[in-house]
Amino acid sequence: xxxxxxxxxxxxxxxxxxxxxxxxxxxxxxxxxxxxxxxxxxxxxxxxxxxxxxxxxxxxxxxxxxxxxxxxxxxxxxxxxxxxxxxxxxxxxxxxxxxxxxxxxxxxxxxxxxxxxxxxxxxxxxxxxxxxxxxxxxxxxxxxxxxxxxxxxxxxxxxxxxxxxxxxxxxxxxxxxxxxxxxxxxxxxxxxxxxxxxxxxxxxxxxxxxxxxxxxxxxxxxxxxxxxxxxxxxxxxxxxxxxxxxxxxxxxxxxxxxxxxxxxxxxxxxxxxxxxxxxxxxxxxxxxxxxxxxxxxxxxxxxxxxxxxxxxxxxxxxxxxxxxxxxxxxxxxxxxxxxxxxxxxxxxxxxxxxxxxxxxxxxxxxxxxxxxxxxxxxxxxxxxxxxxxxxxxxxxxxxxxxxxxxxxxxxxxxxxxxxxxxxxxxxxxxxxxxxxxxxxxxxxxxxxxxxxxxxxxxxxxxxxxxxxxxxxxxxxxxxx
Length: 480
Prior knowledge:
Elements: E1 2-10, E2 27-31, E3 39-53, E4 59-63, E5 73-76, E6 91-92, E7 95-112, E8 120-123, E9 133-142, E10 148-154, H1 156-159, E11 160-162, E12 168-172, E13 176-180, E14 191-203, E15 213-219, E16 226-231, E17 236-238, E18 250-258, E19 264-274, E20 281-293, E21 299-310, E22 322-326, E23 332-335, E24 357-365, E25 373-381, E26 384-396, E27 403-409, E28 419-423, E29 428-430, E30 444-453, E31 457-459, E32 462-464, E33 468-478
Parallel strand pairs: 1-6, 17-19, 22-25, 23-25, 28-33, 29-33
Antiparallel strand pairs: 1-2, 1-10, 3-4, 3-5, 3-7, 7-8, 7-9, 10-13, 11-12, 14-15, 14-18, 15-16, 18-19, 20-21, 20-24, 21-22, 24-25, 26-27, 26-30, 27-28, 30-33, 31-32
């Protein structure tokens, strides 16, 4: 299930004719299920969201507004399985709303097929409807001075049609549902594991309340909203020693939440490289398709599927294309979510294998009639969601949550590699009460950091054979 969740902030004075105060109004995208593990991307542009007032024919346009300079918001749904992002900021009149309508344009799907050359098949699927209307249940109630939230779920498993052999067809039939969201501690209206964007401005001084500083960041490759990210004394800042060392143009990954007052607060900030479009230097997000290694097992080059770019230079390096990444002695290696690495596993040039989701920072070079090359300055192991089924339980701790199990992956990219999922006390289990309750028939989504272990060893008391992909998880989600 893929979810679009919108946080809508009411205007001061409701329907009065006084001035409207616009606050942050995020729209989150979650992916909970896909019909095929080899769907690497499902991107589309969302141009409009409207809401219908209950019991009337009145509609309110959430976006675009007259001040919106980028009315087409680009979203890649397939990159957001069990993740979330922010789509829009809005302010609407008081009232009760029981229907939402989205306008979805220009869908494009990227499929991995190891039998083809090139390995990526691009499909431009028609939509059965470009303007699906979704009942909102329970309805969204907007009150003066009170933050409200709307969640819209896109059921990807039923939206992408497949044939009798479970192969993706050329049709997308959007299936959605929507509901108002109630905030809950400690994450307010919701926690974002891995928001990616680039820095616009930095305010390295107290900005009121308990905030020690702030910066603004642009989301969705420059097509989404610009958000003010507030830091507190508890925020973990990695990649720069202090906030005033954070430069504009830097790509950042966040773990953050929206509180009941509408403040966007970071728990973790991973500052990465600076994007400089004029120098062809930016961040590429995607999957490793194949890798070349030296005699010591160090990756020297790999083929990389480009799912997203920060910022977007699709006119030069098309999305859903494959680039060649060169890895050198000066390339640095990091993880995008240090708190998830609870076993303190290393990530280096021996750790890259097909199927991993990475962020590659570097300078690209266009080569006539050849794949674009990227000289990697730094490579980040990104949080990703692996889909599959339970192979077997390996270890279950006394708390019922800490342990490990073998995962049979759904994607062809990972099927040659044994996948061991490891959990700890902080791992969140959805729709299942701990490791021993996982059903062998159920589809699982394991969200975490996948570390390739070239040599055999023991991790948190679990024996790990050589050649194993070890996934340190934040969440295990049982779908069926």
